[in-house]
Amino acid sequence: MPLLDPDLWTGKVFTGEWVDTGSTSEAVEPATGKVLGTVGRAGAEQLAASAEAAAMAGERWAATPYQERAAVLRRAADLLEEHRDEIGRWVQREAGKVAAATQLELALSVEELREAAALPSQPWGHLLPTTRPGRTSIARRVPVGVVAVIAPWNFPLNLAMRSVAPALATGNAVVLKPASETAVCCGVTIARLLTEAGLPPGVLHVLPGPGGELGTAVADDPHIGMISFTGSTPVGQELNEAAGRRTKRMVAELGGNNAFVVLDDVDVEKAAAAAAYGAFTHQGQVCMATGRVLVAAAVAAEFTDRLAAIAQGMSVGDPLDDVDLGPVINRSQAEHIDDVVRRTVEAGAEVRAGGGRDGLFIRPTVLAGVTPDMPAYAEEIFGPVAPVTTFDSDDEAVRLANGTPYGLVAGVHSGSVRRARAVGDRLRAGMVHVNDQTVNDEVVAPFGGVGDSGAGRFGSFTNLDAFTTWQWVTVHEEQVVPPSASA
Ligand code: NAP
């Protein structure tokens, strides 16, 4: 039987079982406009019921022996590998993702589950010194309770899994709200994998639904102890404000406008190929995408020629065919990309490749002569556009790269690793890649940004900080009465 058999989930949300809420939406394939399926949708009332049920189920889950929690996550990883083709096809069709990006997403998701399976057996605290004789004093990690995971559509499975798996591993229950565009390849898939892997009912709830309504409900809900939000900066900041009113912890992984710096001593061919990867992977719909290509004036002409040639040689089409780029996710995203390119060209930039679109299919676009006052430089594009800006010195490159409210990731290429490191050390970003472009993700590395790109980190050891809190516990062998204040 297929893992994602639509008979199980059509028109339903997941609360430990598949239930009808009376509200549905369609999963649409961006490449063709075809309806792929129908999912259930939840509102604030269902969110409240799920959060309460998750809090109760979570207490039992946290008390489950650590080997059992780890085993569930390992089995989910095995199932994901076993059903790789079926799940991959959903990712390709629902998220509009070409084969290479789909394989990357599946591989990262498997690794997230396997890495998370190692967390339950980690040491959980410290034995503390104490001033009181006969007292055992312990600092221990405890789960935060119920974690709300709000996920985007661009790497839907992986970006949800990087929170769901470690949150469960550390003894939390989870309420997952997938993006509306990718409710099946994110939400349904995660529910099915973990159910089949033996996760007890009620520990995971999957609630597709309207972001605004569910976001407000998540921020206010007394049972939800923490929010993991991955998405755009304006939405993340609004949600963080609402969560702050409840002093609720939130890890925010937000937008980026990432600089790739190309110094004047590079191998231009390698730098141009790296820039093409950074700017055009998954149609540029990657938070780590190279949004600004900063190139030393001395090599800018040759670099831009090569980058434009690479872009012109790329194929665009249905991701199920053997193409380099698929469609962008929806019409509003396509119109946004068009609008940024149009305004940048009106402001004086030159189109060196691409610049046109056919529905949701946008050709990889190279813009030359881009200056910091132009929209393609100043805004997150989230599309297959490489704006090229020139600089005259390493100092100017650093100033340009850091001249943004975002701070997710930066990359620098140079023929001299010493020089590249010196520039890299001055870049203000949560992640810096020396002699590489900006799109890099490894589940064992701390992932996250500074400034408008977010707060908090995911990945490996930082997951313990993200998904647990500290509790101080003292134990006396016998009942004690504290010494009086005057003693
Ligand atoms: P988005 O519009 O902010 O949506 C992200 C998620 O938030 C979706 O599940 C969405 O639900 C939900 N949402 C919408 N309004 C909400 C609200 N008022 N309160 C709470 N949740 C709400 O972002 P997106 O368009 O899906 O993703 C693209 C953005 O995400 C880009 O800016 C990109 O850079 C960023 N991103 C960051 C990272 C990172 O790790 N730093 C990774 C990937 C993407 P609906 O779908 O139902 O609207």
Strand order of the largest sheet: 14-17-18-13-12-19-20
Briefly note the structural class of the backbone. Answer: alpha/beta
Please name the CATH architecture of the largest domain: 3-Layer(aba) Sandwich
Detail the poorly predicted runs: none
Number of self-contained structural domains: 2
Anisotropy-based shape: globular
Radius of gyration: 24 Å
User: At the first level of CATH, what is the class of the largest domain?
Assistant: Alpha Beta
Mean pLDDT: 97
State the end-to-end CA separation: 73 Å
Write the layout of secondary structure elements.
Blueprint lengths: L5 H4 L2 E3 L3 E3 L3 E5 L6 E6 L3 H19 L3 H17 L1 H12 L3 H19 L7 E4 L6 E9 L2 E5 L5 H14 L3 E5 L5 H14 L7 E3 L4 H10 L3 E7 L2 H13 L3 E5 L4 E5 L5 H13 L9 E7 H16 L18 H16 L3 E4 L3 E2 L2 E2 L2 E4 L6 H4 L6 E7 L2 H9 L6 E5 L3 H8 L6 E4 L19 E2 L6 H6 E9 L11
Parallel strand pairs: 7-8, 7-10, 8-9, 10-11, 12-13, 12-19, 13-18, 17-18, 19-20
Antiparallel strand pairs: 1-2, 3-4, 5-6, 6-22, 11-21, 14-17, 15-16
Helix pairs in contact: 2-8, 3-5, 4-5, 4-7, 5-6, 6-7, 8-9, 10-11
The structure holds NADP nicotinamide-adenine-dinucleotide phosphate.
